[in-house]
Amino acid sequence: KRLAILISGRGSNMQAFIDACSSGVLDAEIALVLSNNPDAGGLARAAEAGIPTACINHRNYDSRETFDAAMVAELSRHDPDLVILAGFMRILTPVFIEPFAGKLLNIHPSLLPKYPGLNTHQRALDAGDSEAGVTVHFVTPELDGGPPIIQARVPVETGDTAATLAARVIVQEHVIYPIAAGWVLQGRLRLTDKGAVLDGQPL
Ligand code: GRF
């Protein structure tokens, strides 16, 4: 099975997939790591691991749609069975989402539907939440609104800052994301018009 991973930054979730594939936890190979950001640290990590990389810089395109079309063209060359958004920081349009519908996942650092969008940890702290976490979900045109697959919860500790909370959450991200991806690749998890279905059971 072939994975494509989209990143914009350091790529720690991408690294978790590199590790999962090399350890055999995931029966898959990473066919491409694609970034919109030429300075993304994850590009160097992927290259060090011998993984093909590409950079399609969104600044070179005059619309979200033309940028998305360029990414779709590049990704399609690698024929991925699953596309993973991992710290990918651009909003995708249906031009991208539709060709990969049902095989496009994202990880969002909050217990969706709480805190879609940015600055999720600070918002949880400001709200005085006693717990926070992360959600892996199918990607649909609704930003951070696709059917959830797996969530992980962490306690908010006294004195937490957004940084200390993020550091607690990211550990869980690296656990649940490869699990969710494995379910899709094994054909156990599907996106239907009624949401996510795992082993025939709606999630
Ligand atoms: C993480 O908080 C992740 O939840 C979000 O982007 C941040 C950085 O991810 N999607 P990574 O370290 O680049 O994988």
UniProtKB/TrEMBL annotation:
For the keyword S-adenosyl-L-methionine, the answer is no
Coiled-coil ranges from the UniProt annotation: none
Q: Which UniProt keywords apply?
A: Purine biosynthesis, Transferase
Positions that bind N(1)-(5-phospho-beta-D-ribosyl)glycinamide: G11, S12, N13
Record-level GO cellular component terms: cytosol
Q: What does this protein do?
A: Catalyzes the transfer of a formyl group from 10-formyltetrahydrofolate to 5-phospho-ribosyl-glycinamide (GAR), producing 5-phospho-ribosyl-N-formylglycinamide (FGAR) and tetrahydrofolate.
Known NCBIfam families for this protein?
PurN (TIGR00639)
Q: What is this protein called?
A: Phosphoribosylglycinamide formyltransferase
**Which organism is this entry from?**
Pseudohalioglobus sediminis
Q: What is the lineage of its organism?
A: Bacteria, Pseudomonadati, Pseudomonadota, Gammaproteobacteria, Cellvibrionales
